Amino acid sequence: MIEDLLLALAGAAVAAGVYTAAAARVVKQYERGVVFRLGRLLSDVRQPGFTLIVPVIDRLHKVNLQIVTMPVPAQEGITRDNVTVRVDAVVYFKVVDAQDALVRVEDYRFAVSQMAQTSLRSIIGKSELDDLLSNREKLNEGLELMLDSPAMGWGVSIDRVEIKDVSLPETMKRSMARQAEADRERRARVINADAELQASKKLAEAAHQMADAPSALQLRLLQTVMAVAAEKNSTLVLPIPVELLRFLERGGTAAPAPAAAQKPMTPQEPLPGLEPPPAPSPAYLRGAADAVEAIEDLAGAPVEPAPQEETT
């Protein structure tokens, strides 16, 4: 009698163990359990942890609530300005309602993928090439809105959508490169012209300043000579004003002319038909004297005045 009772208890324990093993389920922290009892959906969603179901009668489906990263295959389309491009993107989404994700759509991953491809083609046709290249934030927001509206009915929330790459034909790349080069060249020419304008204004101001003080021009000439001589060049070009040569010519001693040739002219008598030259100012004479001294220092010998040719 006792042996039969022990055997019955042992059999019950084994049956309970088998039942518990068949009914026990573990739901992870990032999952939710949806139970179907004889094909009908139970209202309560199993939370993370240990849970029990009725073997053979219940079916437990685990739904992952983590954010899913899904790449969208590259889609080829024609933009609004008639340019053929290939655009690929990536979609980040997650399940917010486990029951709707299982009941309302057959495969929510496949549905989101197809909707993303269709929306990407639609965005390509509505946008211009410049928007695809430089205004992607606005296009990403538009893609997110187009995907989020139907996905909410599936228990899926679109976290964000990003356009990864835009592939252009080689001919379009070359055309864009030429356009960028022409724009850079235009900007360089404008900058050079602006620099020339500013330099001309400064040179005009310097010319007016030197006109008030003629000695400043001589000092600038000496500075130029010093800058050229510092380079140790074998050839030195020294510009001499024509007025200085005329001044030296007038100040030189004239050779005596034959008595029978013509009547000698005094400095007070101008040539026939010509007006006498104006007398140089004292400031100009001082500048000329400084220039002559500088030339003598550079040449190492005094500058002789040029002889005046005889007039016949």
TrEMBL record:
Query: What is the top-level taxon of the source organism?
Result: Bacteria
Q: Name one Pfam family in it.
A: Band_7
Segments forming domain Band: 22-180
Q: What is this protein called?
A: Slipin family protein
Ranges for the region named Disordered are: 255-286
Q: Which PANTHER family match?
A: AT06885P-RELATED, BAND 7 PROTEIN-RELATED
What's the family? Belongs to the band 7/mec-2 family.
Species of provenance: Streptomyces solicathayae
Report the CDD domains cross-referenced here.
SPFH_eoslipins_u1
Biased region (Pro residues) positions are 267-281
